[in-house]
Amino acid sequence: MEQRDWPGWPDETARRYRAVGHWQGTTFGEQLSGWAVRHADRVALVDGDRRWTYAALDTAVRRLSSGLAGLGLRRGDKVIVQLPNRAEFVLLWFALTRLGVVPVHAMPAHRRNEITHLAAVAEAVAYVIPDRHARFDYRELAARVRGDAGIRHVIVAGDTGGHEGFLALADLFDDEPGPDPVDPPRPDDLALLLLSGGTTGMPKLVPRTHDDFAYNSRRAAELCELTEDSVYLAVLPIAFNYTMSCPGMLGVLQAGGRVVLAPSAGARTAFELIARERVTIAAINPPLVPHWIAEHEHGDTDLSSLRILQVGSARLADDLAAAVTKTFDCRLQQVFGMAEGLLCLTRLDDPDELVHTTQGRPISADDEVRVVDPDDVEVAPGETGELLTRGPYTLPGYFRAAEHNARAFTADGFYRTGDLVQQLPTGHLNVVGRAKDQINRGGQKIDATEVEGHLLACPGVIAAALLPEPDAVLGERSVAFLVCSGEAPSMAEFQAFFRDRGVAAYKAPDRFAVVDELPSTAVGKIDKKALARRYLG
């Protein structure tokens, strides 16, 4: 195996995963070519009025991979991909992985601060953007990032806007499919880099191989009983692990089904696509659930094709889970997973009580789970503890983060998730909180340490602490407690400050509270538990 920038699985463990068939020894480029033979004329991808059969998808990917190779992109290169739910993401993703070039999955909401960090850690050689999306011009962002990070190529899905040196993605499709890569990837190569929510500073990069990521999506597809007749609606950003592989886009394509891209997360848009394309499975997050229920109660769209509604990326309240079951004539499936690997699903034949009150159980017989106390001693069944895990699709270490890996993994390779859970005798997990200093704002993970660093850079702020507080729609929202040297900046001034620093908008605190002092622990650290008790009840 080639020298890595991250720890691989132990050789004996890898051999066992191959022997039992979890890892099947094919790359995503090879898989796509196989699907094109088996399902040639079936529709694979739908984006608005544009449709690709499996054969057409494979041909387009080969044409694009040839053009990308012409730019000098080679196996092992890293490319930041920041595209919304457009077919170009799918075409580009397969073209890159076919060459062994590694896509780094940036979110549409990321701005200069995050993209520059990703480019530096990954040593990215290219950056792919839309021209505009959600009223934001990504070309201006790319122009600044390119100078900061030394990126060689900026590729635009759309109009380059006259920016010197920018390339139009449409111009990179060769007239004819090119030959196979000279130095093709191997199944155990790095296939993509996902983003961790992070607990100290900026997000970590999560390495996933062709072997483990394919198993992740394939196994989830099996448990969702996907077939050639399955139609998946991608509502949330396609670059999310959830939308990619739980079972997501990849799981549906592995089954020979159809992927439909939703241009926005609006309930009306989703319902129209469900009716038009006869969608059978869709995946949303808890903040969208009330909107879906309200749209269903006030509308008359035909949703009779929908068989499974997945809800994940944040904890779904029990009563809201019950409301989903009552409202929709389909099966609710709770999803608990992470970019780092472990995926839990409620099963389609689980009793409603488990579906309404738990976040499922691991998808693989070789997922290993421990629930431990602060001393790493396993707690009794049903008691609360931190979730530790390892398995055939859970990372053995973050990318280029040796120091962090020493803290994030046990000596025997278990990943410390930071999630506080209770495990039932059935194996189902009830997620009750987090040990990590992180806020889950509607599925968007906000690292408190990073935001506090920005707050402390604001003129007049001398101490800052970011805490979560419950929110009926988002699950959690962020509250910044500040000690100021004079008059505190206004909300508008804080928002402008974050925007000027190039920070994603969702990371700006939802509420600010000015206090005289922040309580501290015996060793001089801010005591957030005491702060929460004092001000948040």
Description:
The protein has 537 residues and is an alpha/beta fold. The chain folds into three domains: 29-41 and 56-185, Rossmann fold (3-Layer(aba) Sandwich); 212-434, 3-Layer(aba) Sandwich (Rossmann fold), CATH 3.40.50; 440-535, GMP Synthetase, Chain A, domain 3. 32% of the residues lie in helices and 25% in strands. It has 17 helices and 27 strands. The strands form seven sheets. It has a nine-stranded mixed beta sheet, sandwiched between helices. A five-stranded parallel beta sheet has the order 4-3-5-8-9, with helices on both faces. It is globular and about 70 Å long.
Descriptive labels:
3 domains; 5-stranded parallel beta sheet; alpha/beta; 537 residues; single chain; Rossmann fold; GMP Synthetase, Chain A, domain 3; 9-stranded mixed beta sheet; 17 helices; 32% helix
Strand content: 15-25%
The CATH architecture of the largest domain can be named as: 3-Layer(aba) Sandwich
Helix content percent band? 25-40%
Distance between the termini: 53 Å
Classified by CATH, the class of the largest domain is Alpha Beta
Principal-axes geometry comes out as globular
How many domains? The number is: 3
Oligomer class? single chain
Largest β sheet strand count, sense and barrel closure: 9 strands, mixed
Enter the CATH topology name of the largest domain: Rossmann fold
Overall pLDDT? 94
Strand order of the largest sheet: 2-1-13-12-14-15-16-17-18
CATH H-level homologous superfamily name of the largest domain: ANL, N-terminal domain
The unreliable regions are: none
Which class of secondary structure composition applies to the elements? alpha/beta
By DSSP (H or I, 4+ residues per run), the number of helices equals 17
Secondary structure: number of strands: 27
**Rg from alpha-carbon coordinates:** 23 Å
